[in-house]
Structure formats: structure tokens, C-alpha cells
Amino acid sequence: MRLPIIGYVLSDVIVSWIITLIIGGFLLWWLTAKRKWPLILDYIGTTDNRKIGTMYILFAILFFIRGGMDAMFIRTQLAVPDNDFWVFQADKYNEVFTTHGTVMIFFVAMPLLIGLMNIAVPLQLGANDLAFPYLNAISFWLFVSGAFIFNMAFFFNAAPNAGWTAYAPLSNDTFTSGPNNNYYIFGLQISGLGTIFTAINMIVTIARLRAPGMKLSRMPLFPWATLVTSSLILVAFPVLTVALLLLMFDRFYGTSFFGGEFGSPVYWQHLFWIFGHPEVYILVLPAFGIFSDIISTFSRKRIYGYTSMVISITLIGLLGFMVWAHHMFTVGLGALANSVFAITTMLIAVPTGIKVFNWLFTMRKGVVRMTTPMLFALGFIPTFVIGGVTGVMLAVAAADYQYHDSYFVVAHFHYTMIGGTILGAFAGIYYWYPKMTGKMLNEKLGKWHFWLFIIGFHLTFLPQHFAGLNGMPRRVFTYTWEDGVFLFNFVSTIGAYLMGISMLFVLWNLFKTHRSGTSSVDGDPWDGRTLEWTTDSPAPEHPFPNVPVVDRLDAYWYAKVNQTNLPQTKDVRPDPISIRTFQPILLAGVLMVMSIGFIYHWMWLQILGGGSVLAFFLIRSWTDERNEAYRKGEKS
Amino acid sequence: MKQMSDVLFLDKRFGFFLYLVVEAIMFATLFATYIIFTPAERGAHPSEVFEWKTVALTSIFLLSSSGTLLMAEKGLKNWSRKWIWVGLVTTFLLGAIFMGLEIHEFYKYAHEGYTLSMNNFLGAFYVLVGLHASHVAFGLGWMINLMIQFTKDMPRALFIEKHKIFNYYWHFVDVVWVLIVTIVYLPYLF
């Protein structure tokens, strides 16, 4: 469609603009009519870990809807051979699978997990907040800023189109010259910075803010997983930062690191996967932690093999850095390199297997309660095992020459990412919802959600293994009758719609829970084992006026068993200082402005935005909340 | 209960050290990039671009600035305003001279036709050394800010905290420079 001034635009962009404006207008009206603005301002200016965690999850759900719609478009286009669904062919299809992948990894999976970490980790440690509340708000708003930059691209008809891996030389300005992949660079760069700050925050919190008596060997497994994940982020994300920086120099300033006559496209692959492979463990380890806590709680048993669980996550974390080239078996690195990386990859199955058996043994002879979080945990185990088995198959370098870039790979990583991370996030949300909001999500609707989702999931992705083995390559927008993959694809599409429908149950559940009339719950609705259940629901901003003293793992549980209370103390270290500030959201806005300057090569906007970003360092330095706090300390 | 400023300083220091780990990995990746692409098959060879005089001069100024910063650190320890001033001002001046020399070096290379698009050796050189130079520039701004804060009424514990965090940063930037000299320049100077 050709519009005046704007030029040639496909109808999906126009429809999205119209729908977004209508929904946006309705939302503004609704917020004003219901007088919700004070509440929203309260959340925007907060540094409280629970509120920030809740916002992470809300935004993750928003982007989940976006990434999910992309998935629906993909599956609809692939439903039947030689299909011509709406506009989603050729270039448009490239955009859709690129945004689907990038959004789901960086703006759904990451914030869901970071949100749950924000809510649960400090509470489980007996800490009153994260170590750096202000920095936490910065992290969150950097994530929002990056996510908005990335999602904006589509609305300006310039969605990134080089795949979520942005392989060079395709991602270079020679082959994708528009602003499209500039959006990718800046969206990831800014949200990545936020993730790095979160990792620092988590590590310092876990290292220095644990309750008295909570040695590392008495710490619940979710904080343990968070600690290992944060360490991985600390090492992996800077590599992505530099890779994106170099790609930016290639696209903007005429260097040729990854393309042209001097460049090395394989070097991009190395850098990307040195980040990218630890990234998948970054995504799955927190889910392991969540499942460990949930399975233990709902089996009324101490987690089986606690020490081996800790050793396993640490080993997975370490091995995660030694396997990146298994994404590059077909590049031609040579037999030796392929063999080494094949072996390290297979080794990861060992600690993962240990964890699976530990979860099973935790349930053995336990009093198992089939609540919604527990259902998700139980659904996770077989699903993830299938994903793990196909992972070991892919690790066989010689066989990988057949599997590489086929739907078999697509099926594999959806089994691990959805089976691990997304099921884990759902389980965590149902589990900790009382801590977030003070209300319980409806169990019946939760179970509907689980069953529809898990059935839809397997319907979608199990056939994709066979489509791949029958030779269907990934990232193609159509196939023919003769290819013999129609049935697999058709079933897959049905499954995808089932998953989509299951998500409606989540929205209905949220609506129903908050409609009114539903009463608040007490602090310990699940009969939990860890310290977060000793606080009120929702967790107050200062949850531990007196900090509990811990003498073993699951100390709260054993106190309940012995019908005593946990001993408490006031003699603890001072808390981090929480404040109200609008600097983080303003910084996010300024970074967005600067990024737009770069994306469209507007020099004046780059200078304006960059200068304003630097000004924020000064503003921060001069409005430091420690000034007042230390002054009080000096007087007393 | 322990003194609030002591505990919060230890939090901040640990967090900042972790941030320096992040920075170190970024620089390490850029060093790897430089090593992989240098010397390039075509275009300028490092030995025709680099001059030992510039390297020696810049190194003298930047490395001695880490030494002069120790004076300020001594001043922080004994709370001597004089030593803090002397340390900060000399460090700033030495850093500023380094910055001037660095800008001059870049300008001269570019003028001689050694631009960052000539080949990947020069591309990697400019990105790596440029990132370091921007760290020095940021540090100079940071020092000005510290000096202004020093003249204002600020709790002593907070100023010491801010100053110490800056010291870690500046020493880190110096260590990176030592690595740049040994990895980027030295192999091609003699």
C-alpha cells in the first residue's frame, strides 16, 4: 500500500498502528477513569524489588503477546503448502522470525526470570532489598528502553531481518542496508547493559545480604541458580556488547570486521555464540532453581541431594562456556575442534541428568500435592528430558551435518527453552503470585492453562522433529506438496493455536483474580519451606523488621514441624537505602532518543542524546541518597 | 550495629569490582580482535604506523598519573585536604596531557591516510585504543566532578567512598594501558 509522505508500507504495519492506537487510547481513558495514575506514578518512581519484579513480569507478558503473535503468523503461513497468508512471505517472513526469536529470548524469557529473581531472591535470603535499589531501577528501565527500541522497528516498517543471531555478512550494511538491523544493535545493547547491572546486583546481594546463619550451604536453590546465572551473565554479556559494537562499526563507520574483503564472518559466529551459548544456560538455570523449590515444597520433602544439585548447576555453568562451537559444526573448523566441542557438549548431559534424578527422588515417598505450580514442574521434567536427548543427538558432530539448520534444531531448542524456561517462569508466577500481589491465582483456570499449554506445546513441536528429519530447513516461508511435510506442519499449526488459546486462560485468570471480591491470602498459602513465606503477602517494602536466624536448609519448615518460631534478631547489617526517583525512567527515555539518532544517522540527535546521557552521571552523583543517610550517621 | 557507611561502602566496592570484571572482558575481547586481525594482509602494517616516541610519552604521563593518585589516597587515609588536592590536581593534569597526546596521535594517523576503514588492523586499533581513550576522558570528567564535590559540604565518609571508587577505576584504566602497550604497540616497534 502506498501512503502519502510515508511511502510504500505493507498492510500489516498499518493494521498494527490502528489497533495499537485504539488499544492505547482505550487504556489511557481507562486509567484516567479509574484514577490509576497515582498507582502508576508510584510504580514508576519505585526502587522496591517486589514492585520492580512485578513490572518486569508485566512487560514480559506484553512482549510475550507480541512474540506470540509473530509465532501465530509463522505457523499460519506454514500451515499448508504453497501458502500465501496475508503478507508473510519472503522478506516479511524474515522479519517475523527474527523478531519472534529476539523478542522471546531477550524481552520475554530474560525479564520473566529476572522479575522472579527480583521478587523471590531477596525474600528467600532474608534481605530487605537488593544491594543497590537505585541500580535495580536503572536495570529495569534500561530493559524497557531496549525493548521499546527493538519493538518500535516494526511500527516504522523497519523490523530487523537477519535472524536473532544476526549472522554476518547478512547483517552488514552491504546486504541489509536499511535501519532494520540498527534497531537490533541498539535494542540489544541497551537492554544488555541493564542485564549486566542486574547480575552485579544479584551477586552482591547474595554474597552480602544473607540472613544471619544462612551459609551458602544453607541457601535455597533458586538463589543458588541466580548466583550461577549472574556469574554467567557477567562473563557472557560483555562479549555480546563488544560483538554488537564491532558490528555497529561495520555498519556505521566503514570497518570490515565481519564482511567485505578483509573481514571474517566466522569471527562474528564465534563472538555471538561465546555469548549465545552461555545465554541459554542463563535462561534455563533459574528455571531449574524454581523447579527445585517448587518440587520440594509440594512434595513436603527436603530436596534430594542438595549438595549434588549445587555442584550440578555450577558444573553446567562452567561447561556452558566450553561448548559454543557446537553451533558451528558445519562451518569447517576441523575434525579436532568439532570432536572437542562434541564431547564437552555431551558432558553437560551428566550434571543435567543428576538434577533430573534428584527431582524425581525428591518426590519419592513425598506427600505430593498437584497444585498448578507443581503441574508445571511435572510437565517440565519429561519435556526437558526430550529436549536434552535431542541435544545429545545434535552434539554428535557428524550427525549434525544432517540436522543443522533443519526443523529438528527448531524442535530441539523449543523443547529446552519452552520446556525449561517458560514452564519454569509460569510455575514461578503461579507460585509467587501471592508474594507479588497478595492474591492467589485461580487453581482451576491455572490447570486449564497448564493442560492446554502442554498439549499444544507437544502438538506443535514434536512433529517438527520429523519435519526436520524429512529435510525441511528452518527459516523458509513455504514448502511444496512434494516435500511430504504437510501433515507435520499442519499438526504443528493446530498445536500453536492451542498454545495461543491456553494463554487466554491466563488473561482470564488475571482478570478474575483482580476483579474484586477475591480475598487476600496470608503469608504462607502453600505451606512453604523458605524465608519468603515468613513475610506478609504481598511482601511489604521492608519485609524483615527483625531478620530471622537460620540454622539449616529449609529452617522455616523445620520450625513449623517443631511448632516453634524461627529465632529473630535486630543485630544485623544496615539495609540498602531505597528511594523514590524518576531518574531511571528519564534516563531510559534519553537513551531511546540517542539510539534513534544512531539508527537513522542523525548526528545532531546523537550528540544531544549522548550529552544528556552523560549528564545523568552528574545528576546521579549530586543527588546521591547516601549523602543524607551518611550525614545522619555522622551526627549519631 | 555496624557503621552504615562502612557496610554500604563494602557493598559498593564489591559491585564496582564486578563491574570492572565486565570491563576487563570487554577489553579482552577487543584484544583478541586486534590479535586476530593484525598484521593485515593489505593496507598499512603496524610498524609503518606506530612511533615509539608517542608510545613512550603517553605511557610516561598516564602511568605516572597512577603514582600521583597514590598521594590523594594517602590524603584520604590521614584526612589531609592538602594531599588530596595535590594528588587529584596532578593526576588530572597528567591525564589531560595523555588525552591531548592521544588525540594528536589519532589525528596524525588519520592525516597520514591511516583511517579505520583502511584495514582491520587499523579498525581494531581504533576501536580498542579509542575505547581506552574514552575511558580516560570519562575519568577526567569524573575527577573534575570529584574536585567540585570536595569543595562542597559533603559527609566525609561519602567523599572518601566516591574518591576510592574513582581510584579503582583509574588504576584499572592504567592496567589496560599497560596491556595495550605490550600487546598493541611493542611487538611492532622494534
The CATH homologous superfamily of the largest domain in chain A = Cytochrome c oxidase-like, subunit I domain
For CATH, the homologous superfamily of chain B is named as Cytochrome c oxidase, subunit III, four-helix bundle
Helix and strand pattern of chain B: HHHHHH
Q: Which chains share the greatest interface?
A: A-B, 51 and 46 residues
Q: How many β-strand stretches of chain A?
A: 4
Major beta sheet of chain B, specifics? none
Structural class of chain A: mainly alpha
Helicity range of chain A: 55-70%
CATH domain fold name of the largest domain in chain A: Cytochrome C Oxidase, Chain A
Supply Rg of chain B: 19 Å
For the record, the count of structural domains of chain B works out to 1
DSSP summary, beta strand count of chain B = 0
Assigned CATH class of chain B: Mainly Alpha
Termini separation of chain A comes to 71 Å
Key terms:
heterodimer, A: 636 residues, mainly alpha, Cytochrome C Oxidase, Chain A, 2 domains, two-stranded antiparallel sheet, 20 helices, 4 strands, 1% strand, globular, B: 190 residues, Four Helix Bundle (Hemerythrin (Met), subunit A), 6 helices, 83% helix, elongated
Brief rundown of the structure:
By secondary structure, chain A is mainly α.
